[in-house]
Design a protein that fits this description.
This protein is mostly helical. The protein contains 13 helices and no strands. Helix 5 runs antiparallel to helix 12, helix 8 packs across helix 9 and helix 12 packs antiparallel against helix 13.
């Protein structure tokens, strides 16, 4: 009975989110409307997590994590391209700010919370170092090729790629993303499956949903994610105004957008960690970072054909230091195949440092 009520509630919220998005699209919301949008936005995030879990139960892992990561990222890419095309202040660096924020949120924020939750409840949670290490390696390579190298190339005066360099980065990103998905789902799928605990339990979810329930949840998942990203764009003027009044750099808008868009993955990863499925949490975290770069950069490269103005991709010195530290700490975390509260706390401190320095560079 409780499961039926929950499914009905999440279905209604998904539809209400789409309706509210259609009504408010292109409207500059006032305080009252922004509050309503925020409430529905939170509800849509919770609905997306529920429907993603239903789909994951049916298709199994790691396909379930892949569905949520790709669905969120595809809509996120559409949002980034739309905001860049609008040509507002700071739009030339929006892709860089949002993608880098996604990497730091997933690799530090989501990973840190998942490890902390899992370690607090189960002592020393275990995961597959082969899968987590491979995913972290892909994140490191993609981020370095697309976000670090533009700072040091000389074809353009600023931290930008030339058209030829951008084309190479786009092809390389898409190719590496494709190889990773093939490895995750076909060639070495067992690297990305949850580790069975000492008592033989793998933290399963329960009975497998029917085909009808799965297809319904898949459709409602897409609806909820469209609502989440669309409503995030609708309230972006309010976010920009608040950031400006607070004296925070314009680039922090990209961080806020990434936080809103990645909420479903964050909640899903936390719920997985609470069930001793840390591998699923890592699949969601690193998979989202890989999808964010591997799909955003090619889309931006294509969109740059008609977009006007510069496209700033290169990170600043402070961001590069934070990224390198994240890679080093992440490597030390995933290599043993198990973690404690200390590793979770370290990642969360790095995430807090990223947020603080983004507001007060």
């Amino acid at each position: 009975m409780l499961a039926r009520l929950r499914s009905s509630w999440t279905a209604v919220v998904s539809v209400v989110g789409l309706i509210l998005l259609a009504v408010t699209w292109g409207v500059s919301p006032g305080p009252a409307l922004a509050t309503v949008i925020a409430v529905v936005l939170v509800g849509a995030v919770l609905a997306a997590v529920h429907h993603a879990e239903v789909v994951a139960q049916r298709v199994g892992e790691p396909f379930g994590s892949l569905v949520l990561a790709v669905a969120v990222t595809v809509i996120e890419v559409a949002l980034i391209v739309t905001l860049i095309a609008s040509g507002g202040e700071g739009s030339h660096s929006l892709a860089r700010d949002t993608v880098f924020a996604a990497v730091m949120i997933t690799a530090n924020g989501i990973v840190g919370i998942a490890l902390l939750v899992g370690a607090r409840r189960y002592g020393i949670p275990r995961f597959n170092p082969e899968g987590a290490g491979a995913a972290l390696a892909v994140v490191t390579t993609l981020a370095t090729l697309t976000l670090v190298l533009p700072t040091f190339t000389t074809s353009r005066p600023g931290p930008e790629f030339s058209p030829l360099q951008l084309g190479f980065a786009a092809v390389a990103s898409l190719a590496l993303y494709g190889v990773f998905v093939l490895t995750q789902t076909v060639r070495h799928r067992h690297f990305f499956l949850p580790v069975v605990s000492d008592d033989g339990e793998d933290g399963g979810h329960g009975p497998t949903p029917t085909n009808r329930a799965t297809y319904t949840s898949l459709a409602l998942l897409c609806a909820a994610l469209v609502a989440v990203v669309g409503l995030a764009k609708t309230v972006s003027p309010v976010i920009e105004a608040g950031v400006s009044r607070a004296g925070i750099p314009e680039s922090f808008v990209g961080v806020v957008i990434a936080l809103l868009v990645l909420l479903p993955e964050g909640l899903a990863a936390t719920r997985a960690a609470s069930r001793n499925r840390i591998q699923i949490s890592l699949n969601l975290a690193y998979g989202s970072a890989i999808a964010s770069i591997g799909l955003t950069i090619p889309a931006i490269a294509v969109a740059s054909i008609w977009l006007q103005g510069p496209l700033t991709l290169g990170l600043g010195g402070t961001q590069i230091v934070l990224f390198l530290l994240t890679v080093i700490v992440g490597t030390l975390t995933v290599v043993p195949g198990r973690a404690t509260r200390l590793q979770g706390a370290i990642h969360l401190v790095l995430f807090a440092a990223f947020l603080f320095l983004a507001m007060f560079p």
